[in-house]
Amino acid sequence: MNHVPTPAGRHTPATAPRTRTSRLAVIAICGATVLLVVLGLFLWTPQRSTVASFPQAAEVTYADGGTHYVVLQRVRAPIAALGLGGDGTSALDHYEIVIGRDPGAGYGHPIRIEAGGADPTQLTVLWTSDGVWLDYPTGHRLFVPAKSFTGGR
Description:
Number of helices: 1
Structural class: alpha+beta
Number of strands: 7
Strand order of the largest sheet: 1-2-3-4
Number of domains: 2
Strand content: 25-35%
């Protein structure tokens, strides 16, 4: 069989499908990688939802003159539904308190809640001139001094 050279830049019928297949494989791999990254970010990025908000008592004032809030949030990453943490105290699914001047809890003093089996939604808040008390029906109490949440943005 005689082989005739092809002009430069042109493919023979035998090499054209291989080039097309290579391009499709690269595109498929890139697409799958982007999809996995986006899916991974969605599954692992915690979603925050406000459970309760407690504004500062009107009779209590602080040196910065602002109104402060205790905001209870549930922090849950979608992947927590798989139950990988086992005991339910996973970083993927927990409660957090944010104390500060932002009623939306975008900025402030964060505190992760570990109340020994107490329901975090049964929180009672007592504002004092020295700080704020967080109380649970189980008797657990947490005091946060005013210097920890005043003077912020």
